[in-house]
Amino acid sequence: MKQIDIYDFDKTIIPYDSGTKFAFYCLTRYPWCFPIAPIVGIFALLGITGVISWKAFKKICFSFMPFIPRRKAIKGFWDRHEKDIYPWFKERPREALVISASPDFLLEEIQKRIGFEGLICTRHNPKTGAIIGENCARQEKVNRFYEEIEQSEYRVIDVYSDSLKNDRPIFSLATNKCYHIVDGKRNEFIYSQRFSEDS
Q1: Comparing C-alpha atoms, which of 152, 132, 143 is closest to residue 172?
Q2: Backbone angles phi, psi at 86, to 5 degrees
Q3: Does residue 197 have a pLDDT over 70?
Q4: CB under 8 Å, gap of 24 or more: what pairs does 166-169 form?
Q5: Which helix (H) or strand (E) holds 120?
Q6: Do 174 and 156 form a contact (C-beta atoms < 8 A)?
Q7: Entry pTM
């Protein structure tokens, strides 16, 4: 049985939300997309306040994608920001499965560059930017894990995430240790059912 560790991506192995950072990168680098920004901002506010779901927000947050040179933009973004990956992730002890709510079209490029073994993230139409299926967050991370990983062949050892609240479901998969990431620092703790209920 192969041993793997699970990692969240945003604010876990990189210090910010990569999807948001990419959106700002594109809106500033390709100014003809800027008129879309107020619409995205309004939908983001509605998402933060709970008026709409994050899935609804993600239907429009990358709506600028048809107006940019997609491959060039993604390459340029990671050329600038690949250095922001925390060094400890590059020295990981086991094979890594990254499970993230960020878009697949963005994370597939960094996976190729730094060579982590597995990737599960939110599916988007790369041409339109629209979300396909569910947002890969909270319980959906575990749902996707069970859909895509053969349980008899893998054992999850450690789990890493910046969010104790949102990533309780993936923390529960750890058979050894959990790590809460705060400002790039790994804070070890043992998952328990009480933690799940109290968080």
Answers
A1: 143
A2: -65, 135
A3: no
A4: 166/137, 166/138, 167/8, 167/138, 167/141, 168/138, 168/195, 168/196, 168/199, 169/138, 169/139, 169/141, 169/142
A5: strand 118-124
A6: yes
A7: 0.92
